[in-house]
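not sure who needs this but someone in the group chat was asking about SUF system FeS cluster assembly SufBD core domain-containing protein from Thlaspi arvense so here u go. i didnt clean anything up, its just raw.
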Amino acid sequence: MGHVSIRAQASFSDPFVLQLAESLEDSLSASPSSASSSTLSSSLPLQRIRESSAETLISTPWPSRKDEPFRFTDTSFIRYSQIEPVSTQKRNSEILDNLTETQFPNAVIIDGFVSNLTIGPSDLPDGVYFGSYSGLPDELTNRVSEFIGNFDSGDLFWSINGVGAPDLTVIYVPAGCKVDNSIHLRYFSGETGDRESKRLPVSNPRVFVLVEEGGEIGIVEEFVGIDEEGFYWTNPVLEVVVLKNAKVEHSYLQKESMAAAHIKWTFVRQEAESEYELVEVSTGGRLGRHNVHVQQLGPDTLTELTTFHMCVNDQTLDLHSRIVLDHPRGCSRQIHKCIVAHSSGQAVFDGNVRARGIDLETARRALISSFGSEVIEKFPNRVIRDQARNHVKCLL
């Protein structure tokens, strides 16, 4: 892939963030696959993500405890490590060799690359696609590209993934198709660093899911630590688009090394009458943070988040969720449970809902009307009360 010109726009950058972004950019440019013109033309959405993320990074400092979203989450051990991009030319075949046949999921993703697929087109319903964006059939490329990169910006770590993602894995479900068996993604960090030298390899896996109207699918994400004390940073992003009357069941199991950092973004957009369900269990990582942002884009939409975090070591496990319900009869249910079983462990939960369910102008009129109604209701005469109330409504 070509450079995204971070250096040329860097006059207001945090020097550390700029250096990290440049190293990610250089590591991708050095990859033999990035020089292929066919790869470039078939990965334009990923290039757009890189460019927009680079623009965000040049004005975003590394977060500190003074920043509200990170008030209880200390990321300094990442900040003061020697962060290095994983080598895109090193595929850890030992991981695949050590997996028995019964352990293989549908896909093994190592350092952001799909390194093994045990499911092919013949194993999926007609029209379902699962694989790299570059392998999309021509008839699907434009359709999928409509939605890629159209999400609201996340934080610094979202943008780091955008600059550093080496590939884009796509799951596509056509209209009315119900996929009976869940697609299982198992993620590994093939390269680990060293705690004494503080060399911290970072990987940036990225997956995009599009479920057309009336489609249904289950997705399992499993993040596995090969070595209990492996020193690495996994920085994944999952984007999900659930169109009208479609359904996604998302299972997420995070059991990284106890010395690792794991910072994940899950961004979901739901259209009318759709359903998205997340079930999460997180137990790994010296620092584990999951940012879940869900936006309901139509009425009669259901969002369910059920999560469990358990700290059994010197860990910080953090869940930041945000659900936006802007339409009538939007519904959300959320359960979060956590156990801290270590004296130095810490669990953080920050859940945000802004539930309006009506358009902005109606909401504004209702607020103004209710603001004055406290006085209007003091009129002892019911006729006068009604006249005053109706007069205010007419003015609004």
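also The chain has two domains: 7-355, 365-395. if thats useful
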